Amino acid sequence: MALPPGYTLHSGLPSVDAYLHLRSSTGLSPKCASQATASINGTWYGCHVTYQSPTNSDNESSQPEAVAMGRIVGDGGWYFVIADMAVLTSHQRKGLGDVILKQLLKKIKEVAPVEEGFRPYINLLADAPGRRLYERNGFVYTDPHSLGMMFQWD
Q1: Residue 128's pLDDT band (boundaries 50, 70, 90)?
Q2: Is residue 144 included in any domain, yes or no?
Q3: Residue ranges of the N-acetyltransferase domain (predicted)?
Q4: What are phi and psi of 7, to 5 degrees?
């Protein structure tokens, strides 16, 4: 799927500030700069999309802005968790999330070892807004076989 004009897909994640902005602006839980730095550094693979508006009347072009991202946390062999899928509200409904998810899955398929009957385990936690995107791209619900759980801090 091609991106609309003005949008560019990049391997790697955006800056810490852009990462934090994407998380907070899209309803993901907020993180501090040290958590964002550790998350970016601990990413197995990530990508993001920038948008650069057309040149204005003064012939000055704007700086590209990170408007979408996604990343994979994993061991590179069997276990891959897709995380931090985010698209700024003003850039939604343009296929950016689909492009990012397809790029993440492509990277896993290129690198992860696959043998007859043994494929990598790719999972994610699906918030309500992203569920249709994930279903369209081959994800299925794991219940009743398994349900996601998290540690509850005191």
Answers
A1: confident
A2: no
A3: 66-140
A4: -105, 140
CB 36 within 8 A of CB 20: yes
Burial of 36 (0-12, 13-18, 19+ CB in 10 A): buried
User: What predicted TM-score, i.e. pTM, was given to this entire model?
Assistant: 0.91
Question: Is 148 a member of any domain?
Answer: no
At what angle are helices 33-41 and 16-25 packed, to 10 degrees? Answer: 110
For residue 35, give the DSSP letter.
Answer: H
Beta bridge partners of 71: 46, 83
Domain containing residue 104 = 7-54+63-136
Does residue 129 fall inside a structural domain? Answer: yes
Instruction: Classify residue 90: in a domain, yes or no.
Output: yes
Q: What is the CATH number of the domain that holds 113?
A: 3.40.630.30
pLDDT > 70 fraction of the chain, expressed in percent and rounded: 95
Segments in 55-130 forming alpha helices (H):
96-111
